[in-house]
Task: inverse folding
Protein backbone atom coordinates (compact mmCIF):
# COMPACT_ATOMS: atom_id res chain seq x y z
CA UNK A 1 0.00 0.00 0.00
CA UNK A 2 1.29 3.44 -0.89
CA UNK A 3 0.70 6.18 1.61
CA UNK A 4 0.93 9.91 2.10
CA UNK A 5 1.65 10.99 5.66
CA UNK A 6 0.65 14.35 7.06
CA UNK A 7 2.45 15.30 10.28
CA UNK A 8 1.00 18.15 12.33
CA UNK A 9 1.88 19.70 15.70
CA UNK A 10 -0.19 18.59 18.66
CA UNK A 11 -2.06 21.57 20.18
CA UNK A 12 -0.42 23.06 23.27
CA UNK A 13 2.31 20.39 23.48
CA UNK A 14 5.66 20.92 21.77
CA UNK A 15 6.82 17.38 22.53
CA UNK A 16 4.09 15.59 20.59
CA UNK A 17 2.73 15.52 17.07
CA UNK A 18 0.18 13.41 15.29
CA UNK A 19 0.06 11.75 11.93
CA UNK A 20 -2.73 11.28 9.44
CA UNK A 21 -2.19 8.88 6.58
CA UNK A 22 -3.90 8.72 3.24
CA UNK A 23 -3.43 5.16 2.03
CA UNK A 24 -3.82 3.70 -1.46
CA UNK A 25 -4.49 0.10 -2.42
CA UNK A 26 -2.28 -1.56 -5.04
CA UNK A 27 -3.42 -1.53 -8.70
CA UNK A 28 -6.54 -3.64 -9.37
CA UNK A 29 -7.51 -3.57 -5.66
CA UNK A 30 -10.21 -1.61 -3.84
CA UNK A 31 -10.65 -0.83 -0.16
CA UNK A 32 -13.10 -3.13 1.65
CA UNK A 33 -14.33 -1.12 4.63
CA UNK A 34 -16.08 -4.11 6.19
CA UNK A 35 -12.86 -6.15 6.33
CA UNK A 36 -10.60 -3.07 6.72
CA UNK A 37 -8.21 -4.22 3.98
CA UNK A 38 -7.54 -4.00 0.25
CA UNK A 39 -9.32 -6.63 -1.84
CA UNK A 40 -9.34 -7.50 -5.54
CA UNK A 41 -11.66 -5.01 -7.28
CA UNK A 42 -14.44 -7.53 -7.86
CA UNK A 43 -14.50 -8.45 -4.14
CA UNK A 44 -13.74 -5.04 -2.65
CA UNK A 45 -17.29 -3.73 -2.70
CA UNK A 46 -16.13 -0.16 -3.13
CA UNK A 47 -18.82 2.40 -2.34
CA UNK A 48 -18.16 6.12 -2.71
CA UNK A 49 -19.29 8.39 0.09
CA UNK A 50 -19.52 12.15 0.35
CA UNK A 51 -17.34 12.54 3.43
CA UNK A 52 -14.09 14.34 2.82
CA UNK A 53 -10.77 13.73 4.44
CA UNK A 54 -10.03 16.90 6.34
CA UNK A 55 -6.28 17.32 6.68
CA UNK A 56 -6.62 20.32 8.97
CA UNK A 57 -8.98 18.91 11.59
CA UNK A 58 -7.54 18.86 15.10
CA UNK A 59 -6.69 15.53 16.67
CA UNK A 60 -9.05 13.82 19.04
CA UNK A 61 -7.87 14.69 22.51
CA UNK A 62 -8.68 12.93 25.69
CA UNK A 63 -10.70 15.00 28.15
CA UNK A 64 -9.13 15.57 31.55
CA UNK A 65 -11.62 15.92 34.37
CA UNK A 66 -9.72 18.34 36.63
CA UNK A 67 -12.22 18.34 39.54
CA UNK A 68 -12.13 14.53 39.68
CA UNK A 69 -8.31 14.42 39.49
CA UNK A 70 -8.00 17.05 42.23
CA UNK A 71 -10.58 15.46 44.52
CA UNK A 72 -9.14 15.47 48.08
CA UNK A 73 -5.89 17.09 46.86
CA UNK A 74 -6.65 20.72 47.70
CA UNK A 75 -3.52 22.88 47.57
CA UNK A 76 -1.39 20.20 45.87
CA UNK A 77 0.57 20.36 42.63
CA UNK A 78 0.19 17.16 40.63
CA UNK A 79 1.45 15.97 37.21
CA UNK A 80 -0.79 16.44 34.20
CA UNK A 81 -1.73 13.00 32.81
CA UNK A 82 0.42 12.11 29.78
CA UNK A 83 2.20 15.48 29.47
CA UNK A 84 5.41 16.24 31.37
CA UNK A 85 5.39 19.88 30.25
CA UNK A 86 2.28 20.66 32.31
CA UNK A 87 1.04 20.20 35.85
CA UNK A 88 -2.19 20.82 37.72
CA UNK A 89 -2.57 23.21 40.63
CA UNK A 90 -5.41 21.73 42.66
CA UNK A 91 -7.23 24.62 44.27
CA UNK A 92 -10.92 25.35 44.78
CA UNK A 93 -10.89 25.89 41.05
CA UNK A 94 -8.19 23.56 39.62
CA UNK A 95 -6.12 24.89 36.76
CA UNK A 96 -3.35 23.69 34.45
CA UNK A 97 0.05 25.37 34.41
CA UNK A 98 2.76 24.95 31.80
CA UNK A 99 6.48 24.70 32.53
CA UNK A 100 8.82 27.09 30.74
CA UNK A 101 10.38 25.93 27.47
CA UNK A 102 12.84 23.00 27.83
CA UNK A 103 11.63 22.23 31.36
CA UNK A 104 9.40 19.42 32.62
CA UNK A 105 7.31 18.81 35.74
CA UNK A 106 9.26 17.08 38.51
CA UNK A 107 6.80 15.54 40.98
CA UNK A 108 9.54 14.84 43.53
CA UNK A 109 10.74 18.44 43.73
CA UNK A 110 7.32 19.94 42.93
CA UNK A 111 8.80 22.29 40.37
CA UNK A 112 9.70 22.51 36.70
CA UNK A 113 13.07 20.86 36.12
CA UNK A 114 15.33 19.44 33.42
CA UNK A 115 13.85 15.95 33.86
CA UNK A 116 10.31 14.58 34.00
CA UNK A 117 9.70 12.63 37.20
Result:
Amino acid sequence: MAQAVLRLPYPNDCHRYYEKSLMSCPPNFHWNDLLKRCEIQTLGGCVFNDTQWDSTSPPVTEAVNLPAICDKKLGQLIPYPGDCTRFIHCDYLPFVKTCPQYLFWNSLLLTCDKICV
The helical segments are 41-44, 66-69. The chain has two helices and nine strands. Residues 2-44 form one domain. The chain has a mean pLDDT of 77.
